[in-house]
Protein 1
Amino acid sequence: MKKLLNTLLSVSILCFSIGSFAEEAKRPSLFDRMGGEKVARQIVADTWANHTSNPIVKNRFEDSDGEYVKQKVYEIFAMATGADVKYSGKAMKATHATMNINEAEFNAVIDDVMAALAKNKVGPQEQNEVLAILWSVRPDVVNSNLTTKTLTTEAKAVK
C-alpha cells in the first residue's frame, strides 16, 4: 500500500510539474510583453542616448560606432528577453574584460536602461525582470578590483 501511495504521489507531482511547464510555455516572452521588436529597438536607442549624455559613462562611448553598438545591444537584449534573435557578438566577459568597468559605471548603465524602460512605458514587472537579467551579468562586466571613489570624483569634475 505504501508503495502505491508513493507512486501516486510521484505521478501527481510529475503531472503538476508538466502542467506548470506547459502554462509557462504558453506565456508570452518578456520581449513580447514589452512590445516586441519596435519597442525593444526604441529602448536600445533611448539607452544609447542616455549613455552618451551620462557624465559617468559617456566617455566610454565617444569613439564607438553607435549603429554597430546599438545593433549588438539589440541582439543581446532581444535574445535575453526571449526573442528568437541570434546574438552575433562576443560573450559579455570577453567584451568587457579589458574595459575596467567599476561599480559606479555599472550602476549608471543600469539607471540609463531603467530610464529607457520607463520612457517606453514598460510595466513594473517587466522592468524588474530586465533588472534581474542585467544584475545577472554584473560579474562578467564589473572589475571588482576597482573602487568607485576615483570615478565618482572624476564624474563630478566633468559636470
Protein 2
Amino acid sequence: MEILHPMLAMMALSATMILVLLSSRLPAIIKNFPNLQGAKHSDELRAHYANTNFRYITDNYNHIFEQPTLFYAICLYIYIAESADDLHIQLAWGYVLLRLVHSIIHISVNNVAARASSFILSSVCLIGLVGREAISLLFSI
C-alpha cells in the first residue's frame, strides 16, 4: 500500500504543474480571447506572454507527462504484484522528490546542469524500480 503514496505525490505534482500552467496562460488567453484561433499551437501563444520564462512552464508541463507514465505503471505493477519493500519505497520517493526538484529548477532559474542532474538521478531511481521487478520476474520463472 505504501508504494501508492509516492504515486499520489507524483500525481499531486502533476496537478500543481497544471495549475501553474493555467495561471501562466490564462491572462494571455483572456487578453486575446477574440483572437484565440491565431494561437492554434502553444508556441503561437508565447508571443503574447509578458514573461518569456513562461516557456519553461510549458516545457516542464510536457515533461511531467512523459517519463512519469512509466513511474505510474511500475508502481501499480509493484502494488498489484505485492512486491513492495523498503527499497522500492525509497526509490519511488527518491523519484518523486527528484522530479519535484527538476520542476522547481525548470520553472524558475532553468539551470540546465542542475536540471539534468536531477533528471538523471530520478531516471536512475526509475530504472532501479523497473530493473528490480524485471530481475525478480526473470528469476521467479
